[in-house]
Design a protein that fits this description.
It is a single chain. The chain is of the alpha+beta class. Helix content is about 60%, strand content about 10%. The chain has 15 helices and 10 strands. The strands form 3 sheets. The chain has a 5-stranded mixed beta sheet with strand order 1-5-3-8-7. Helix 10 runs antiparallel to helix 11 and helix 10 packs parallel to helix 12.
């Protein structure tokens, strides 16, 4: 098994915490309990001084304080249950309407986590303060803590209004799709740096040093590769005086015993070395978007396919997905991928592996095109999106890839669509695409662009 305390374990723990409904509420609850204990202590030490300063605000009636705290605690417990129920309903709706893969986006929503924590925290705060009120031999009423409880109740009411607004907005298709796009763009900015050089090829295989060979570093866990620390991989290779060649990409499913990477060495790696290497990776039961731009695209495609299914037939949602997929590929089109070859100060240490532009482009549009048999407007939107992507790049290789997509849409449209009115619109849009490819130096004939 991989070492349980490697950087991969830490990364996996952070991913799980970010998408949990318990961590942020737990912190808020701890803070509420600490606040209650601290205010009660202040009341015990400075009760008389505080009453003289604010006699109208601070009361010394035990029954009145108990009534206020009991009312606040009861209402907060009820509202917390309502908030939890609404959250579960929103998760079920998102899974049914969009895709089960977007559930973690809702679960990791900080607003939902904070609101749930606020209500439970205020409830427990009131219970702790209520327990300290005494009117027997020596009467004690933590007046300052009671006033703060009233303030927290007012604050929680504001959070309830905010939560209703937030959950109503977040379950809308446009907001869900936009949130996925924003996260994916952040990851794409890492894969497609603003100013990167030309893409490098894996040429080291042809120049292996004498007596050296590639030995597999097998995975010791089963699941999806959620992330890896590039700096840790380079440090691992430097410490062992070798080169690592990644055989899998972030987001790939790996099984125990399958090669996760290859190690350039004169002898096979030992179990300890393999375990240490596996500790760099976060491997879990699901894909995450943190280092996996393809998963963000996958989510948008899934939403589009679900919208185009016969049971839903929501063309507008599918169109919104295509618009955002176009925006993602427009971001990629003019940029070069980050180099596959990673060095330390002087020596090559890591040959990375990640999806290329062709893979992301096919992932974005192929399945949607095949699912749009009865939706000519979707085919037209795909064609327009490809034209926008082509206008963002002068790279001939990528233009040829975009050209293949245009040709596939044309063939698919002529095969499945018979409406004369739509065909006239489609041919007009196709003519615009043809003209764009001509300006990029790609000739075409017979109405269909040909490289």
């Amino acid at each position: 098994m991989a070492t349980p305390f490697g950087k991969g374990y830490l990364r996996k723990s952070i991913i799980n915490i970010r998408s949990s409904l318990w961590f942020i509420p737990a912190l808020i609850i701890i803070g509420a309990l600490a606040l209650a204990a601290g205010l009660v202590e202040i009341d015990q030490r400075y009760d008389e001084v505080l009453r003289k300063q604010w006699p109208r605000l601070l009361t010394n009636e035990a029954e009145g304080a108990r009534g206020v705290l009991s009312a606040i605690a009861g209402s907060m417990a009820t509202v917390a249950g309502v908030v939890f129920s609404i959250t579960i309903v929103a998760l079920a709706l998102a899974s049914t309407q969009y895709s089960s893969r977007v559930l973690r986006n809702f679960m990791r929503d900080r607003a939902n986590q904070v609101v749930l924590g606020v209500f439970v925290g205020v409830y427990l705060y009131c219970l702790v303060v209520l327990r300290t009120i005494s009117n027997h031999t020596v009467q004690f009423v933590p007046s300052l803590a009671v006033i703060v409880a009233v303030f927290l109740a007012v604050l929680a009411s504001g959070f309830l209004i905010f939560f209703i607004h937030h959950i109503s907005s977040s379950i809308q298709a446009s907001e869900t799709i936009a949130a996925i796009t924003r996260e994916t763009l952040k990851v794409m900015d890492q894969l497609f740096p603003e100013e990167a050089g030309a893409e490098h090829k894996k040429t080291i295989n042809a120049q292996l040093p004498h007596g050296m060979a590639w030995f597999p570093l097998q995975a010791t866990n089963l699941g999806y590769i959620q992330g890896a620390d590039t700096a840790a991989l380079i440090a691992f290779a430097k410490k062992n005086g070798t080169v690592i060649r990644m055989e899998c990409m972030i987001g790939d499913f790996i099984t125990s015993g399958r090669p996760l990477a290859s190690l350039l060495s004169s002898r096979p790696p030992g179990h300890a070395l393999i375990a240490e290497f596996n500790g760099i990776f976060a491997i879990g039961n699901y894909r995450t978007i943190d280092q996996d731009a393809a998963f963000g695209i996958r989510q948008l495609v899934d939403i589009a396919l679900k919208a185009l299914s016969p049971g839903i037939n929501d063309v507008t949602t599918a169109t919104i997905c295509i618009d955002h997929l176009t925006a993602l590929m427009e971001r990629c089109a003019p940029r070069y991928l980050a180099s596959l070859l990673r060095y330390d100060d002087v020596a090559l240490r890591l040959i990375a592996n990640r999806p290329d532009f062709e893979t992301l482009l096919s992932l974005s549009f192929d399945q949607i095109r095949e699912a749009a048999t009865d939706n000519p407007d979707i085919l037209l939107r795909l064609l327009e999106g490809l034209r926008h992507i082509a206008s963002a790049t002068h790279d001939m290789k990528r233009l040829h890839l975009l050209l293949k997509q245009v040709e596939a849409i044309e063939i698919f449209t002529l095969r499945h669509i018979e409406s004369p009115l739509f065909l006239a619109r489609f041919k007009a849009a196709l003519a615009q695409s043809n003209q764009l490819f001509e300006t990029r130096g790609i000739k075409h004939r017979h109405g269909t662009p040909k490289a």
